[in-house]
Amino acid sequence: MSNYDIKSEEKFMGQNAWFSLFMGITLLIISVYSMLNQTSAPLLFLGTAAFLGSFFMFVIRGGFTWRMKYHLTYKDEYLNTIDTIAYKHVVLGLLFSMGGVYLLSDTFALEVSHSMMATFYLAVMSLIYGVSILWQSKD
Asked: Distance (Å, rounded) from C-alpha 77 to C-alpha 88?
Protein backbone atom coordinates (compact mmCIF):
# COMPACT_ATOMS: atom_id res chain seq x y z
CA MET A 1 0.00 0.00 0.00
CA SER A 2 1.50 3.29 -1.06
CA ASN A 3 1.94 6.34 1.10
CA TYR A 4 -0.54 8.23 -1.10
CA ASP A 5 -3.26 5.63 -0.41
CA ILE A 6 -2.69 5.86 3.34
CA LYS A 7 -2.91 9.67 3.26
CA SER A 8 -6.04 9.46 1.12
CA GLU A 9 -7.70 7.07 3.57
CA GLU A 10 -6.68 9.26 6.53
CA LYS A 11 -8.28 12.24 4.83
CA PHE A 12 -11.40 10.20 4.13
CA MET A 13 -11.56 9.13 7.79
CA GLY A 14 -11.30 12.79 8.82
CA GLN A 15 -14.14 13.63 6.47
CA ASN A 16 -16.25 10.85 7.97
CA ALA A 17 -15.56 12.17 11.47
CA TRP A 18 -16.49 15.76 10.63
CA PHE A 19 -19.55 14.61 8.72
CA SER A 20 -20.66 12.58 11.75
CA LEU A 21 -20.21 15.62 13.98
CA PHE A 22 -22.16 17.78 11.52
CA MET A 23 -25.02 15.30 11.35
CA GLY A 24 -25.00 14.75 15.12
CA ILE A 25 -25.31 18.47 15.86
CA THR A 26 -28.04 18.83 13.25
CA LEU A 27 -30.01 15.85 14.58
CA LEU A 28 -29.58 17.06 18.16
CA ILE A 29 -31.03 20.44 17.22
CA ILE A 30 -33.94 18.73 15.46
CA SER A 31 -34.68 16.41 18.38
CA VAL A 32 -34.49 19.06 21.11
CA TYR A 33 -36.16 21.92 19.24
CA SER A 34 -39.70 20.56 19.53
CA MET A 35 -39.34 19.99 23.31
CA LEU A 36 -38.90 23.69 23.98
CA ASN A 37 -42.14 25.34 25.07
CA GLN A 38 -41.49 28.82 23.75
CA THR A 39 -40.36 28.59 20.17
CA SER A 40 -39.74 32.10 19.00
CA ALA A 41 -37.94 33.83 16.18
CA PRO A 42 -34.66 34.34 18.13
CA LEU A 43 -34.59 30.65 19.00
CA LEU A 44 -35.22 29.74 15.39
CA PHE A 45 -32.42 32.11 14.39
CA LEU A 46 -30.06 30.46 16.91
CA GLY A 47 -30.97 27.01 15.59
CA THR A 48 -30.37 28.09 12.02
CA ALA A 49 -27.06 29.70 13.00
CA ALA A 50 -25.98 26.51 14.80
CA PHE A 51 -26.93 24.45 11.75
CA LEU A 52 -25.02 26.68 9.35
CA GLY A 53 -22.07 26.90 11.75
CA SER A 54 -21.82 23.13 12.01
CA PHE A 55 -22.13 22.83 8.23
CA PHE A 56 -19.32 25.30 7.61
CA MET A 57 -17.23 23.58 10.28
CA PHE A 58 -17.68 20.36 8.32
CA VAL A 59 -16.83 21.94 4.98
CA ILE A 60 -13.78 23.81 6.27
CA ARG A 61 -12.34 21.11 8.54
CA GLY A 62 -13.31 18.09 6.46
CA GLY A 63 -12.29 19.37 3.06
CA PHE A 64 -15.30 17.82 1.36
CA THR A 65 -14.77 16.54 -2.15
CA TRP A 66 -17.22 14.81 -4.47
CA ARG A 67 -14.64 12.32 -5.72
CA MET A 68 -14.35 10.42 -2.43
CA LYS A 69 -16.28 7.15 -2.41
CA TYR A 70 -17.56 5.34 0.63
CA HIS A 71 -15.84 2.10 1.59
CA LEU A 72 -16.93 -0.25 4.34
CA THR A 73 -13.40 -0.93 5.54
CA TYR A 74 -10.05 0.74 5.22
CA LYS A 75 -7.04 -0.88 3.57
CA ASP A 76 -4.77 0.26 6.37
CA GLU A 77 -5.02 -1.94 9.46
CA TYR A 78 -4.42 0.96 11.87
CA LEU A 79 -7.38 2.88 10.41
CA ASN A 80 -9.53 -0.26 10.63
CA THR A 81 -8.65 -0.50 14.32
CA ILE A 82 -9.61 3.15 14.89
CA ASP A 83 -12.91 2.56 13.07
CA THR A 84 -13.69 -0.59 15.09
CA ILE A 85 -12.94 1.15 18.39
CA ALA A 86 -15.16 4.05 17.33
CA TYR A 87 -18.04 1.65 16.68
CA LYS A 88 -17.48 0.11 20.13
CA HIS A 89 -17.71 3.61 21.63
CA VAL A 90 -20.94 4.17 19.71
CA VAL A 91 -22.50 1.01 21.12
CA LEU A 92 -21.45 1.86 24.68
CA GLY A 93 -22.70 5.43 24.34
CA LEU A 94 -26.01 4.24 22.93
CA LEU A 95 -26.46 1.78 25.78
CA PHE A 96 -25.69 4.42 28.41
CA SER A 97 -27.99 6.98 26.77
CA MET A 98 -30.81 4.44 26.50
CA GLY A 99 -30.29 3.51 30.15
CA GLY A 100 -30.38 7.17 31.16
CA VAL A 101 -33.55 7.76 29.19
CA TYR A 102 -35.11 4.68 30.78
CA LEU A 103 -34.25 5.92 34.28
CA LEU A 104 -35.55 9.44 33.57
CA SER A 105 -38.54 8.41 31.45
CA ASP A 106 -41.14 9.21 34.12
CA THR A 107 -40.33 12.92 34.08
CA PHE A 108 -40.86 13.54 30.36
CA ALA A 109 -42.92 10.57 29.15
CA LEU A 110 -45.84 12.65 27.90
CA GLU A 111 -43.77 15.32 26.17
CA VAL A 112 -41.53 13.13 24.04
CA SER A 113 -42.58 11.16 20.97
CA HIS A 114 -40.92 8.06 19.55
CA SER A 115 -39.59 9.96 16.55
CA MET A 116 -37.94 12.53 18.82
CA MET A 117 -36.22 9.79 20.79
CA ALA A 118 -35.11 8.00 17.62
CA THR A 119 -33.64 11.26 16.35
CA PHE A 120 -31.95 11.82 19.71
CA TYR A 121 -30.38 8.35 19.61
CA LEU A 122 -29.13 8.92 16.06
CA ALA A 123 -27.63 12.24 17.17
CA VAL A 124 -25.86 10.58 20.11
CA MET A 125 -24.46 7.84 17.89
CA SER A 126 -23.24 10.31 15.25
CA LEU A 127 -21.62 12.60 17.80
CA ILE A 128 -19.87 9.75 19.61
CA TYR A 129 -18.57 8.26 16.36
CA GLY A 130 -17.19 11.58 15.15
CA VAL A 131 -15.60 12.51 18.48
CA SER A 132 -14.11 9.03 18.89
CA ILE A 133 -12.45 9.09 15.47
CA LEU A 134 -11.12 12.62 15.95
CA TRP A 135 -9.84 11.81 19.43
CA GLN A 136 -8.10 8.62 18.31
CA SER A 137 -6.61 10.06 15.13
CA LYS A 138 -4.89 12.86 17.09
CA ASP A 139 -2.46 10.33 18.58
From this structure: 17
- Dump pLDDT digits (tens) for 17-34: 888 888 888 788 777 777
Q: Model confidence over 39-88: pLDDT tens digits?
A: 556 666 766 777 777 677 666 665 555 555 555 677 788 888 888 899 99
Q: HEC string of 86-138? A: HHHHHHHHHHHHHHHHHHCCCCCCCCCCHHHHHHHHHHHHHHHHHHHHHHHHC
* 94-114 burial: b if 16+ Cβ within 10 Å, else e: eeebeeeeeeeeeeeeeebee
Whole-angstrom Cα distance, residue 65 to residue 86? 23
